[in-house]
Amino acid sequence: VTDKKGIAIIGYGGFGAFIHKAWDAMENARVVAVCDSDPTRNPGGVAFYDCVTDMLSDRAVDIVSVATPPSSHKDLAIQAMQAGKNVLIEKPLALSERDGELVRQVARDTGRVATVNFVLRYNPIVEMLRDIVAGEVFGKLRRLDLRNYAMQETVPEGHWFWDPRTSGRILLEHGVHFFDLAAMLVGAGVNKAFSLGVERKPGMEDRVFAAVEYNNSVIGTFWHSFTRPRELETTTFHFAFDLGEIDMVGWIPLELRIWGWTDKAGVEKIRSFGSAVELGAEKIEHIRAHSSDLYYDVDYLIDTHITLPDAKLDVYASGLRAIMDDLIAAIESPSHTMRVTLDDALEAVRVAEKATLFAHPTQPAVES
Ligand SMILES: NC(=O)c1ccc[n+]([C@@H]2O[C@H](COP(=O)([O-])OP(=O)(O)OC[C@H]3O[C@@H](n4cnc5c(N)ncnc54)[C@H](O)[C@@H]3O)[C@@H](O)[C@H]2O)c1
Fold it and tell me: What's the predicted TM-score (pTM) here?
């Protein structure tokens, strides 16, 4: 028990309580403290602080999870690292590229481990998609299109989410998850980014669209709206390749819908996902397929769905444990590279900021 890493959560709102539960089921870590400026948030059962400085002097704390609203992430992460703690920062890393660079500089100067909670990178469905893209199972990736129709219930009028100074607006507050996922899959930096946004009422921009051109000529489009009834919330991330298409379904993805032409190596790649995965491969007559300026030799049509059997919240919680495990591995072994680095987190902020400033040039996402 004593060699478990001690976690402190700063910001015990909806998400703070969820991560507490997820991490309490870990063998190598446990939540030892909670810090919230609002004393009514004290969950009981662990040390509670309403002052960050007091919490940072608690020697039982090895890792600080910064789970406050976005505008405070930069300062709290810096303060925690300067007090000798490792940090798992909620997304976004910061509200501007410049602020994100400051966090990265302090991580370098203090030698603390720091990362951002891009939990989607630890999802098994995302891992399969990453293998399909990297293995060019359906040829080259050309386009991706996110359709995120989120519920409005969790962000009622007056919530900090609608205040650009606190949240940075939707692309910084929420879009970063998907900019990060796209960057990982596309494997190239961003050349151009712009956005459009419309308001439900003055000061409440609840629908945004962003378009991004990557340095390898992939084009990505991203839609987010926070308008749906809870029951009708849907998220679909569409990927188009030279020889097929994949839809990844769910904000916490639980399903891949796969369709396209491939070769034997492509079939083997999908087979490697395990016997629980329905291969859905049909042998076809050999084709020398021409797409764009490329030729592919294909022998199979794949038409299948891969679904995770687990419930959404279980997949979410195991992703949270996986990123914490990854962070602990990096604390214990300096040569360990985390799946999400601060460079990744900074790139997501850079793209979100660039796109946001296109629609709001006179209103920078945030002044630091
Ligand atoms: N990675 C994910 O999947 C995911 C999901 C949901 C939310 N989040 C992120 O978690 C963060 C918190 O979101 P939430 O929905 O829980 O917000 P919330 O408003 O429900 O909770 C925030 C809490 O932080 C406290 N707080 C604010 N400033 C503080 C400070 N300076 N010091 C101490 N306490 C402070 C507030 O009193 C409140 O209890 C946001 O950055 C959000 O983007 C991440």
Answer: 0.96
